[in-house]
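Teaching note: in complex prediction, the entire set of molecules is handled at once rather than each chain in isolation. The prompt given to students was simply: 'Predict the structure of this complex.' The entities are:
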Amino acid sequence: MQKMYTKQEYLKYVEEKSPKSKVLRNVTRAFVIGGLICIVGQFISNLIISKGVKPEDAAGLTSLIMIFFGAFFTGLNVYDELGRFAGAGSIVPITGFANSIVSPAMEYKREGFVVGVGARMFIIAGPVIVYGISASVFAGILYFLLK
Amino acid sequence: MNVFLMYLGAFIVGGVLCSAGQILIDRTRLTPAKILVLFVTVGVILTLLGVYQNIVKVGGAGATVPLTGFGYTLAKGTFSDVDKYGLLGAFTGGIKAAAAGITAAIFFGYLISVAFSPKAKR
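The expected output is the structure of the full assembly:
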């Protein structure tokens, strides 16, 4: 009897909490998948350093490898599936940057290799590079003035 | 550093950064493109303030793999070139430091976009 009651109460609780816990669920998924992708990055970095790559070169080479994986798994149609589950967990890492290049480029291939692939690659990557580089120039000028 | 702590740091810092992105997606109407732009820019600003360097110390790849790490790379390269070449460095350092990442993204992105096709839409 008491068990029935708690179950009903639980269902009511679920009903009430539903929209809020959806956010919690999304954030948890993003945390876990994003964290795991970073662990893969850390593993690659440790591996190449153990193979003799200089630690100061390791970050760039790790990015290069992660970008390859992000692009490759997008090509295999795996990364977008992961994205449906992970949300920002797959968008924020650099693999997501690679995904943002390959996904629209593949989609618009029928428009040709120049205006289709060549241009669509930058639909998200373009703004990222524009704002990243502009911000870094601003930062560099400030650094020069305040140094 | 203890290897376990290194991986734990990467997991937690990377996880927190991705969670921040997810909260922005769920709570605001920011699109993924805007999230990525925001993260790169925030990475540059936090590096200018000297904060992101400490996040990298704790998080390792957890701080360099997320897009804020791309901003960190751009800013760090800019500062080191400003140290070497003065104001010109503000225009050379960022791209130089991010060259491997940007070129890899364009090259692999192009090859894979040409070689593979999207799954048929249902």
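Point out the following to students. The longest helix of chain A spans residues 2-50. Chain A has seven helices and no strands.
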